[in-house]
Design brief:
By secondary structure, the chain is α+β, with helices and mostly antiparallel strands. The protein is built from 20 helices and 22 strands. Strand 3 and strand 4 (144-151) form a beta hairpin. The longest helix has 24 residues, at 329-352. It is elongated, with a radius of gyration of 33 Å. Bound molecules: adenosine-5'-diphosphate.
Length: 605
């Protein structure tokens, strides 16, 4: 029979995997058992609505058979099985997604558990086997198939005999070497130990010599006192293919009108591709031990889409389709309840484990902010206490902390919007606020200004950008002084405005500047920062701020402008253009013609 080759990339990966000095080779059994359990989940779910399955919850099982004389280990299940096509698809290609990443990780990995993360579980059998045979019959099919492979040099598929629906994976173990005693994997003590260690909470019996090896009680069904931190760690990493620890675990045991148990995790790190469409949100949904759905989206709101976990509820009616379940009233009650629990858990973390919370926020804060501005700000008020911002105090601050420590005279919550904390701190407008002892929040995400604008205020204190035309930071004396100076130099300001033409709506003397010569502000509701943001969105580039060039009347640059205005209009125009260019640079806006600006500067020098 002709041998089929694995897809080119798959072959390379398989080579790597077989030859890698992977210290956790024993996990292959967990992977094979977990595939068997998934296959049973599928058929078990079908049996709820399809009488022809002919099996009920209690009939499903995973059987292990050992034959040390032939170095043979077999894992059989009565799950959904595979057709010829699915065999080819599933076992002919390794690591359907992210194979490049997988390869890179594998090359650098020694001890981390990466197998499960990349959907290559089945192939881990080749770490311990010289030959793997998969005999399978799909539900609804009369024909069985046998897939067989010695590893990287390809595989064969042929028709075969199998009386019942399901899958049998037979592994012939490698010869022992210095690093590993492969023959132990067909010894009862070793296999029993591995099942207890890795597969204890598989919800179907795992049977060896007529004896059930696993306790079958999933972690979320066990009393809290019986679940160790280690159990949770292992469960989280195995189940959700997580590469780092979780930041917080949330356990819910709800009784009453709607009964359910939930075991939820707040991840510490965003998984690869989290902020892309690749990431699927949702919790695993079970009902009385039957798996209903792997990613039940309706159980978590968008703002908490990073949450991973399982929900198990006997209250759900099982005999309905997944589509109908989404509209189920019970499910909605559970979802609402879970949302509250997540929020409370995050608040608790913020209170009691600040360092960890801030780490969490650097990863998922953006998600929470998006959650606040979406759906017309429906959740903004609910989520506002979860926000932390960088501030001029050098630490992350909550809005409450900001307001609680405001000097009495301070009317507003001041913020500066910029691409980074350093840029925000450098803004000329920030100086005056700092001089008054007012804290400034540094808003460094695009969405931040929308967040504060949707909130409007916090505890009755309105938000105010330090770029605003009216920041109320200046003293009465300063105001009067600027007004007087404006009257005296009106000609110069009008000249400057005319020189800049349509680039600006106005040129004014500033109240806000102390040591810097210029800054830009906006005369309409679109701030300079919002304009920058809209400029990155197709079809929105027309949304623009009405730019105002603000000049520091006490700065020597302005005096130079006034002098030139009296003696040399051309020189005055050059100074105006340079000042405007400077203001654009400080605001991190593109310069229309950098070479022209450079020429003007050289000219003046
Ligand atoms: P993953 O389980 O992460 O998808 P695997 O490489 O372990 O990746 O398995 C690939 C696919 O092969 C599975 O998704 C499943 O569709 C199929 N498969 C593996 N083992 C079995 C089994 N015992 N019964 C039915 N299908 C299986």
């Amino acid at each position: 029979m002709p041998k089929k080759q694995f897809k080119a990339e798959s072959k390379k990966l398989l080579d790597l995997m077989i030859n890698s000095i992977y210290t956790h080779k024993e996990i292959f059994l967990r992977e094979i058992i977990s595939n068997a359990s998934d296959a049973i989940d599928k058929l078990c779910y079908m049996s709820l609505t399809d009488e022809n399955v002919g099996l009920s919850r209690a009939n499903f099982k995973i059987e292990i058979a050992l034959d040390p004389s032939q170095r043979k280990l077999t894992v059989s299940d009565n799950g959904v099985g595979m057709t010829r096509e699915t065999l080819e698809q599933n076992l002919g290609t390794i690591a359907k997604s992210g194979s490049g990443e997988f390869k890179a990780t594998l090359e650098n990995a020694e001890d981390i558990d990466i197998i499960g993360q990349f959907g290559v579980g089945f192939y881990s059998a080749f770490m311990v086997s010289s030959n793997v045979t998969v005999l399978t019959r799909a539900y609804g099919s009369d024909t069985a198939y046998e897939w067989s492979s010695n590893g990287a040099d390809g595989y064969t598929i042929k028709e075969a005999e199998k009386e019942t629906v399901g899958t049998c994976v037979t592994m012939i173990l490698k010869e022992d070497d210095d690093n590993e005693k492969y023959s132990d994997f067909c010894e009862k003590w070793r296999v029993t130990g591995l099942v207890k260690k890795y597969s204890d909470y598989i919800r179907y019996p795992i049977i060896l010599d007529g004896e059930t090896l696993n306790s079958m009680v999933p972690l979320w069904q066990r009393p809290k006192s019986e679940v160790t931190k280690e159990d949770l760690d292992k469960f989280y990493k195995d189940k959700f293919a997580a590469s780092s620890d979780y930041a917080k675990v949330i356990r819910v045991d709800a009784e009453g009108t709607v009964e359910y148990k939930a075991l939820l995790f707040v991840p510490q790190k965003a998984p690869m591709g989290y902020y892309t469409t690749e990431y699927k949100k949702g919790l695993e949904l079970y009902s009385s031990g039957v798996m209903i759905m792997t990613d039940c989206e309706d159980l978590v709101p968008e703002c908490f889409r990073f949450i991973r976990g399982v929900v198990d509820s006997p209250s759900l009616s099982l005999n309905i389709s997944r589509e109908m379940l989404q509209h189920d009233k019970q499910l909605r009650v559970i979802a609402a309840n879970i949302e509250k629990k997540i929020k409370a858990a995050l608040e608790e973390m913020l209170r009691e484990d600040r360092v960890r919370y801030e780490e969490f926020f650097t990863q998922f804060g953006l998600q929470i902010k998006y959650g606040m501005v979406s759906d017309y700000g429906m959740r903004a008020q609910e989520l506002k206490d979860l926000l932390v911002f960088h501030s001029s105090r050098g630490s992350y601050e909550t809005l409450k902390e900001y307001v609680d420590t405001m000097p009495e005279a301070q009317e507003y919550i001041y913020y500066a919007r910029a691409a980074s904390v350093e840029r925000a701190a450098d803004l000329p407008q920030a100086e005056m606020a700092r001089d008054k002892g007012y804290e400034i929040l540094y808003l460094t995400d695009d969405v931040d200004e929308f967040v504060v604008s949707i909130l409007g205020d916090f505890d009755g204190k309105k938000f105010k950008s330090i770029n605003d035309k009216d920041t109320a930071l200046e003293s009465e004396d300063k105001k009067e002084e600027v007004e007087k100076q404006t009257q005296e130099t009106q000609d110069v300001l009008t000249f400057a405005k005319e020189t800049l033409g349509s680039a600006v709506t106005d040129v004014r003397l500033s109240h806000k500047l102390k040591s810097h010569p210029v800054c830009l502000s906006s005369d309409n509701d679109v701030t300079i920062e919002m304009e920058k943001y809209f400029a990155t969105i197709p079809n929105q580039t027309e949304i623009k701020a009405q730019r105002v060039l603000e000049i520091n009347g006490s700065h020597k640059a302005f005096r130079a402008l006034c002098d030139a205005f009296d003696s040399d209009k051309e020189r005055a125009a050059t100074i105006v253009k340079i000042l405007y260019g400077e203001a654009c640079l400080i605001a991190d806006l593109p310069i229309d013609s950098p070479s022209e600006l450079a020429n003007l500067i050289s000219e003046i020098m």
